Amino acid sequence: MNFQELIASPHKRLNPLLQEWVLVSPQRTQRPWQGEVGKPSEPSSVTYDPNCYLCPGNKRAGGVQTPRYTETYVFDNDFPALLPDGDSQHCDEEGLLVAERERGICRVLCFSPRHDLTIPRMSARELRGVVDAWTEQFSALAQISWIRHVEIFENRGELMGASNPHPHCQIWANATLPNLPARESKSLRDYAVEKRLCLLCDYLQVELQRGERVVCQNEAFAVVVPFWAIWPFETLVLSKRHVGSLDHLQGGERDLLGDVLRRITIRYDNLFETAFPYSMGFHQRPTDGEAHEEWHLHAHYFPPLLRSATVRKFMVGYELLGTPQRDLTPESAAARLIEAGETHYLDRAPL
Ligand SMILES: [Zn+2]
Ligand SMILES: [Zn+2]
Ligand SMILES: [Zn+2]
Predict the structure, then answer these.
(1) Ligand 3 center to residue 178 CA distance, Å?
(2) d(CA 116, ligand 1 centre) in Å
(3) Which-ligand-closest: CA of 295?
(4) What are phi and psi of 118, to 5 degrees?
(5) Fewest 10 Å CB contacts: which of 98, 172, 192, 340?
(6) For the chain, what is the mean pLDDT?
């Protein structure tokens, strides 16, 4: 059986970054659906909301006033998940009740003073400001001796649990590697030791040669629906140059990162003509003082929507108990995203 025949029938695909499998069932896309129908997420129509604690000049829940900022704005989360203080502590009862103290710093970064200005609608200059702010935060946090990992991530939309529609991201920096970056780190290291090459540089070459899962690209970045994607319209943003972190990008590459993020998020919004919800985040080299030459900067987009602005994928049943599974193939998802175009649906001239 050849490759094309194999992936036309039920099969599983390996995620080499996490060393785990995903089931793909291409024959099931026609099955009837009677599940949840939510309400589509409309983009905010006001540039300033007096009740939004992230809008300039407003009071936050802790009583702090958000300053009248004019570009990006970063602050320590008023209700952080992790705290920076304390010594390391380790408890182990019978090898089964094991716990460790985890120190961390949690920040919030507003992309713009405008309540309604999301990444897909930002100008090149505004996007560069966001990329620069991410880079500055990564560099500053990486320099703190006990910080070994910096996670920059955005939850967009109520479906993903975003508590405030004002465009912002979070930055969690902590003392140990989180689960997924730790697994990716091992895979990247093992591949580098075995082949003396980079797993993601090699993977990008395969995708660029084949083309069918490449959604968009510029000189410095490419966006692909990974071969092993779990979420219906999951994508992976890869730097074309082998760099481990945002602070190793050159000026022009920072502009091109903004460009590619704008283009993929326009495609997402266009797909179902909605403010497309997702969780996205960067994976970068650990900041433990080692060089980590094996690391390759990338970003993951994990969007929950499946077939319309209101029907989402749930990770339940077999996926929760066994292996994640998808019906829409990554190749079909890529074709849909390619077709979605790069003129935002709200900017299209009326017919
Ligand atoms: Zn706001
Ligand atoms: Zn690489
Ligand atoms: Zn990753």
Answers:
(1) 11
(2) 7
(3) 2
(4) -90, 165
(5) 98
(6) 94
**53-72 b/e with 16+ CB inside 10 Å = b?**
bbbbebeeeeeeebeebeeb
Task: Identify whether 298 is a catalytic site residue.
Answer: no
Helix (H, G, I), strand (E, B) or coil at 340: coil
Please give the share of the chain, as a percent, with pLDDT higher than 70: 95
In the reported structure, the alpha carbon of residue 182 is separated from the centroid of ligand 3 by a whole-number distance in angstroms of 10
Nearest to 325 by CA among 10, 4, 79: 10
pLDDT tens track for 65-99 = 999 999 999 999 998 999 999 888 899 999 999 99
The sheet carrying 221-224 orders its strands as 73-76, 104-110, 168-174, 149-156, 278-283, 298-302, 235-239, 221-224, 214-217
8 Å CB contact between 277 and 303: yes
Q: How far is the CA of 184 from the centre of ligand 3 (A)?
A: 6
Residues by chain with Cβ below 5 Å of ion ligand 2: 198, 200-201, 242, 296
**Exactly one of 115, 149, 168, 300 is catalytic; which is it?**
168
Helix (H) or strand (E) holding 188: helix 179-195
Amino acid at 179: N
pLDDT digit string, tens, across residues 322-350: 999 999 999 999 999 999 999 999 998 87
Question: Closest-lying ligand to the alpha carbon of 48?
Answer: 1
Q: Compute, in angstroms, the gap from residue 198 CA to the centroid of ligand 2.
A: 5
